[in-house]
Amino acid sequence: MTVAVVTANAYYIHPIIGEVARDFGVSEACIGIVPALNQLALAVGILLLLPLGDHYSNKRLCIIFVAMQALFILGMALAEGFAAFTLASTLLGFVTIAPYLIPAFASKRVAPDRLGQVTALLTAGVIFGILVARVGAGVIAEQFGWRTVYWCAFALIAGVTLFLPVTMRTEASPGKQPQSNYTELIRSVFTLAARHRDMMISGVIQGLNFAAFTATWLALALYLTSPELGYGVDTVGYLAGIAAISIFSTPRLGQWADRVGARRARVISAVVQLIGISLFYPLGANVWTLLVPLVIVNLVGPTIDVTGRMTFLALEPEIRTRLTTSYIVMMFIGGALGSILGTSVYDLAGWAGTCLLLLAISGLVVALSVIAERSWNQSCTQAASQ
Questions:
Q1: What number is the average pLDDT over the span 253-264?
Q2: Where in the sequence is the domain holding 219, given as residue range(s)?
Q3: Is residue 302 part of a domain?
Q4: Which ranges does the record mark as transmembrane (predicted)?
Q5: With left for phi above 0 and alpha for psi between -120 and 50, is residue 292 left, alpha or beta?
Q6: Can you give the three-state secondary structure of 236-249, one letter per residue?
């Protein structure tokens, strides 16, 4: 539940982005800057703040930064102008590190053969948060206006802040680390990333995967509420409810990835996702036919993330948070790129242009996943022959 609530804050904007744009009097292309800056700020915050999880209490860090999330959500609810709203959203992104501290925290407490299952369970919590954010935001905004969405979000995050000291166990001391100061700690993030090339390619793959996800939902919200289709923001929210399938499928697919191997599972998932994305344009005429590609994409998309994390969360416990830092930074740089491209391409070329963009991104995910698997297999063969 905690993971769901602290994750949801970045996704309330998805179904209501058109409503917010109209209220502040900005264009469809301009409104894309709000989620883009949120994602970029999140990447910067993760780079500068998440590595602290290898040195300090994850529990204490989570309490501090969740409380700051509550403050900036309140700022979004009260914002009177577009600039103030964008600033509050950007600062919210910067302090949203709790969802990424928790998986590293959990990975230090499970057996290696259960890593995929546990990572998938936490990913399911993230998916649930995204689901509640998008469905709830659409329904609430249609009935009570978009500001009410952020007042509800503030109530949820304030409640989590109060209960977090009880729900999160106190962990053991992380022990002595080779870094003697903060600057060296941050520098070590880049050093470790350069040393673990497999994690780097996993980060690039997930960055592209998240770019496709973000571009899909922002463009879809604009498309469904356009004069061409004429649906309300509540319909966008209801359609986002299809993500519920991921809550049940992702833990099972994580167990499957434990059996077949992370890299092989990623290739298969990426190919299935490409098939789903290829159906967006031919089935995009109405909300009912759109359910088919959305089910496919929501079924396998999170598995690409789970298998990517599995490639490095089995390494030494003392470096996992910093490797997670690099991975998540690349993921949210991709999300920011998807936010800009999704709204800009839709503004320029409509739904057809968006579908071509998504096909190109998904094709890159497949290609890189195949390259990563072949490279890993070759390195394993060479190691076995020595």
A1: 86
A2: 2-166+184-385
A3: yes
A4: 31-50, 62-79, 85-106, 118-136, 148-166, 204-224, 236-253, 265-284, 290-315, 327-345, 351-372
A5: alpha
A6: HHHHHHHHHHHHHH
Q: Single out the residue of 51, 96, 52, 50 nearest to residue 72, CA to CA.
A: 96
Total structural domains within the chain: 1
pLDDT digits (tens, 9 = 90+) for 329-340: 899 899 889 989
Distance CA(336)–CA(43), nearest Å, equals 9
What is the distance of C-alpha 155 from the center of its chain?
22
pLDDT in tens, 118-149: 666 776 777 778 778 878 888 898 889 999 99
Its pTM stands at 0.77
CATH of the domain at 91: 1.20.1250.20
**CA distances, 168 to each of 3, 29, 54 (Å):** 11, 41, 17
Average of per-residue pLDDT across 185-210? 89
pLDDT for the residue numbered 205: 95
Domain membership flag for residue 176? no
Whole-number Å distance between alpha carbons of 307 and 120: 9
Instruction: Evaluate whether residue 139 is within a structural domain.
Output: yes
42 contacts 98 by C-beta, under 8 angstroms: no
- HEC string of the chain equals CHHHHHHHCCCCHHHHHHHHHHHHCCCHHHHCHHHHHHHHHHHHHHHHHHHHHHCCCHHHHHHHHHHHHHHHHHHHHHCCCHHHHHHHHHHHHHHCCHHHHHHHHHHCCCCHHHHHHHHHHHHHHHHHHHHHHHHHHHHHHHHHCHHHHHHHHHHHHHHHHHHHHHHCCCCCCCCCCCCCCHHHHHHHHHHHHHHCHHHHHHHHHHHHHHHHHHHHHHHHHHHHCCCCCCCCHHHHHHHHHHHHHHHHHHHHHHHHHHHHCHHHHHHHHHHHHHHHHHCCCCCCCCHHHHHHHHHHHHHHHHHHHHHHHHCCCCCCHHHHHHHHHHHHHHHHHHHHHHHHHHHHHHHHHHHHHHHHHHHHHHHHHHHHHHHHHHHHHHHHHHHHHC
- The span from the CA of 26 to the CA of 178, in Å, is 50
